[in-house]
Amino acid sequence: MNLRTHSSARQVLLLDRGGRLWLATRAPDGVALHPGPETPADWRSLATMGRREGLRRTLPLVVEDDRPRVATIALPRLGRRIRQQIEARRITAAAGELGLDQGFVAISPLPPGSGDGGGGTGTDPGIDPARRPDRRALVFVAASAELQACTRAAAIVGLHLRPLPPVLPAGMALAKEHEARWLALHVPVSPDQSSDAGIDQILCEAGLPVFASRRPLSGLRPVEAAMDGSRAVRRHLHRHHATLDLITLLIDDHAPLIAPSPDREEMALRHHQPPFLTMPDPTIPDRDRLPGLLTRLALAALLDETPPLRVQAFGPIPATGTVAARSWHDQPMRMRNAAAPAAAILLSAALILPGLQAAGLVDEAMVAAQRDLMLATEFDLRSAAAGGTDAGRLAHATRVASALGGLAAMEQAAPVDLLCVLDRLAVLRPEGLAITGLRHQRGGNGTEAGRLMLDIEITRSDAAAAEALRRGFAGTVTTAGLGMAAVADPPPGPNGRPPLTRQPPAFSGNGQEDPAGGTLPEGSPFRGQLILAPLPADAGRSGAACRPRLSARRFGLRAARPAAVSADGSPGRRPAGRSRRLAGLALGALAVIVADLSMALKVERAQAHAESLARTAEAARARFRQAEAAAWRLGPGAGRLAADPRPLFGPPAPAPLLRQLNDLALAAGIGTIRLSLTDAPAETVTPRPADRRLPYPPTAEALPLLRPVLVTAELTAPSDAEIRAGLAAMRAALPGRAVIDRLDLADRPDEGLAHARAVLRFATIDQASLPPRPDGPAGDPLATLLARHDLAMPVVLPDRPGTVVALALEPAAHQRRLTGSDRPAGNEPPPVARRITLDGIARGPGPDWRIWINGQRIARGEQGQRDAPVVEAVGRDTVSIRLAEGRVVVPLALGQRICLGIDGVLPDEVCP
């Protein structure tokens, strides 16, 4: 009897290339990955969610490999037993050609038709269709140590896994979606997944892969490689098949620019984007190592529908724990002519089977106990190698972790770098719009916290043009990736003030009419405000340009391997048996029952011993985690604190600090400087989850207090560029991690003056709030850092010449941008070869864009200079350009500098 239900699978297991086990579930926007089962309890809860097939619980297991391994075989139409022997031999031969000696193979019948799609004999009208051999598509899964460990753990809890390669369910799902018999898949392979960048080319017939190869890109784009491969497949199918129905898919995360080939042979190159993959758990290590594109497609297909595929084992590998091993429950029994012997055998099996199962459970419990004992010994040795779990060592490590927690809190005090935002606003400002003042306060309540209010002045003839320019600038700021977005204007009320108002000019009594009684002159500027609000921290890459640059390194971690699962203590299912009036088996039944009772007691003792050793292994694991955390904190963590150039545990003397800040401001070109220091109340540190910068965070009880200090500066300079440069130099010289708490700026370019009042906030870690030292200052790793109160040198990384930041920080360029045109006229003839540098990209609402090449702005729809390059396309981080006389379009990335000629990129020695 074979009871099979076709309900959709809700969970799918994934074994990635690194040997890690994941559990995939459906998410609202794609597929979510969770850490796989590690303990016996996790495996038991997972077994209840498996799909029931007959008397077994099954669950798909996607095994990610370095490349697809597919083959096709033909079977003659002979007897069933001979066909099975031929099939086994040909599967072993095909696996040997692919370099495999053991593993699993998914077998699917290919549809009868014209040819085999992989280099077969094709159609022969002289052969009777009833005598043609049956074709099979084979997809192999290599048997790794991690896969065998998963099958053993699943066998303990009675779960049967179905090992599948990603290419099989992905090809079946894509063929069903596109309704095509022949499907050519082209999947780019990144260098982190293989030794070199390449592209996998897979040919599928009726959704089943029949051919796969990998081709190195060698300078080609994935689109070009896909078009070349598609042409080769089409020529092959034209030679071997009468009809042609081929669809070529390029699977990639981003939609590429697809153009038809020059020979018009490839006309159906399509793009398919795999589902989005998320990891809800923020504590998962190596979150940037995501599965491949085929794996994501396979997970989504198996979560929607699980096809009943046949899986078979080959080579010297046990098939326990998989669907390749058929249990005795599903074996067919044919006893039509021997009813009495069949009844006797069934009764004997019903009585003896519990004893056999008990013996198997005892063996498995003993094996699990021995494995847990070895695991506990291994963890004890690794703990000793990491430095041990001495109480003093752990206390010193806790002090270092507390200091690192305070440092992480200081680094994340401000969500957006205000000076970076101001620098980029000076570059993104369109012609005819001036920023005359700004106000910013980091603190606040609700939505008012961190807002930046800009006072703008627009020179336009009418209000509609001025409002359009203001809205365009707001859209450019929102899409520029500054971490801030423009706040929408409130709805107009009966007494509401419009966003822009025209300022009446001052009349000198020369006969002009008073504006109160007539119209204003046409040259009066429009003045108004633009409010920018910070985006949340989880807004993705939208604010990556002006996020605070954290100085902590990303320390690589080597996570401990999960402990092997222990034996399951649930008793086996006793098959029901009924007496068939065989009185001679009664005495044997009593003897078997007594033996079963004794075996049950033995199973109970073995399982109790195994559980005790499992608890011992868990305690050893906890000690190893403590030792590993202490080793990292006392090693790289203490080195991170010692390498910081600024004092972290105590501010320097006020007088030398103010003198240094005054000298830095004078060096930046600021004329009038007035500084003062003020202490602020102590602040508590909020606990944060572990990340790559702080992999072992301290507990909430061990977090220190921060002692903030406010530096109030009143500055006067020729322009706002000098004020921004001075604030950047002063912030870099302050201890800890200084942020701008408040800033009020008034810029008057016509007078050549800019006034600013800024409040800079820096904090140090309170020494008294650190955890106590166990053995005095002698062995304290923070002893030298606690006594450090010297001044720090400014840590300001110089920007490359020509970038948007360097252009914004040059006072002369800033003054020229305020008073003159952004595109200086030039009458020189264009050179044959020019050096081209892409300085910045800004996008407005809709298709509008502006870019800066060699410090000059080029907008969409505007006529550039005579020697300016021609912009063909503008992407998110790249543009496609060519010279006016050029014949080749060249892609240019942000910040890249090339020597561009008529025929493309030239060597650097060619350009002057």
Quick synopsis:
The chain has 912 residues and is an alpha+beta fold. The protein is built from 16 helices and 34 strands.
Write the layout of secondary structure elements.
Layout: E1 12-15, E2 21-27, E3 30-35, H1 40-47, E4 51-53, E5 56-63, E6 70-75, H2 80-97, E7 103-109, E8 134-142, H3 145-156, E9 159-164, H4 167-178, E10 182-189, E11 198-205, E12 208-216, H5 222-240, E13 246-251, E14 269-272, E15 276-278, H6 293-304, E16 310-314, H7 339-385, H8 391-411, H9 418-428, E17 433-441, E18 452-458, H10 463-479, E19 484-486, E20 500-502, E21 526-534, H11 586-642, H12 654-667, E22 672-679, E23 683-684, E24 705-717, H13 720-733, E25 739-748, E26 753-765, H14 783-786, H15 804-809, H16 811-819, E27 834-843, E28 849-853, E29 856-859, E30 870-874, E31 878-882, E32 890-893, E33 897-901, E34 904-906
Helix pairs in contact: 4-6, 7-11, 8-11, 12-13
